[in-house]
Specification:
CATH architecture of one domain: 3-Layer(aba) Sandwich
Keywords: ATP-binding, Cytoplasm, Kinase, Nucleotide biosynthesis, Nucleotide-binding, Transferase
Subunit structure: Monomer.
Number of helices: 8
Catalytic activity: AMP + ATP = 2 ADP
GO molecular function, one term: AMP kinase activity
Organism: Streptomyces thermocoprophilus
Length: 222
């Protein structure tokens, strides 16, 4: 199984990607995680990526593609993978197609998580993060701290990240829509795109994800 998950910030695709990966025994490949691994390891690609990350610039398509290519050519993804956060552009989508062809594999499906903009703003806008080293995340509506403004785990101060403020969230959604619309069209034309309603509980969305993959009720690797 080789699946790409598309969706705006706050759609819950990271949670569903982890669930799918665990259920079917394949790696969850997040673009952010892959970048951090390379930076931490101090590889040539990691050093190049760090230059962009440290300056707040977008990492170029070519660099993202090189990092993804290295991982997809490794034995760890022999049985498949769940790609989360990649591809983010039509250029990356076409590059991913080439990489998979190099390994003699292809995508099973591309799932696009659909969620109302205001729901995303509510989900992200309610997040609070511990300022201390624990970094635990709370949510004022769905997972509030026992004592308002304080971390349950270490008593540290909770704060709202700039990226999580409602006006910033709306800007992020606009950028996502502009960048990812061509990706969705690319996979729709290839007959791979399937839309998943991302509203509701985590378990409800998981059932829809499995249904979209034709795996509802599956208990083992397909």
């Amino acid at each position: 199984m080789r699946v790409v998950l598309l969706g705006p910030p706050g759609a819950g695709k990271g949670t569903q990607a982890r669930r799918l990966a665990e259920r079917f025994g394949v790696p969850h490949l997040s673009t952010g995680d892959l970048l951090r691994e390379q930076v931490t390891a101090g590889t040539v690609l990691g050093r190049r990526a760090a230059d962009f990350l440290d300056s707040g610039r977008l990492v170029p398509d070519a660099l993202i593609t090189a990092i993804v290519r290295g991982r997809l050519h490794s034995s760890s993804v022999r049985d498949g993978c769940v790609l989360d956060g990649c591809p983010r552009s039509a250029v990356q989508a076409k590059a991913l197609e080439t990489i998979l062809a190099e390994t003699g594999t292809a995508l099973t499906a591309v799932l696009e998580f659909a969620v109302d903009e205001e729901e995303v703003v509510r989900r992200i806008g309610g997040r609070q993060v511990c300022r201390a080293d624990s970094g635990h995340i709370f949510h004022l509506r769905s997972a509030p701290p026992a004592v308002r403004g304080l971390c349950d785990h270490c008593g540290g101060e909770l704060y709202q990240r700039t990226d999580d403020r409602p006006d910033t969230v709306r800007q992020r959604l606009a950028v996502y829509a502009e960048q990812t619309a061509p990706v969705a069209r690319f996979y729709a034309e290839a007959g791979l795109l399937r839309t998943v309603d991302a509203a509701g509980t985590t378990d409800e969305v998981t059932r829809r994800v499995l249904g979209a993959l034709g795996l509802a009720g599956a208990g083992a690797r397909p």
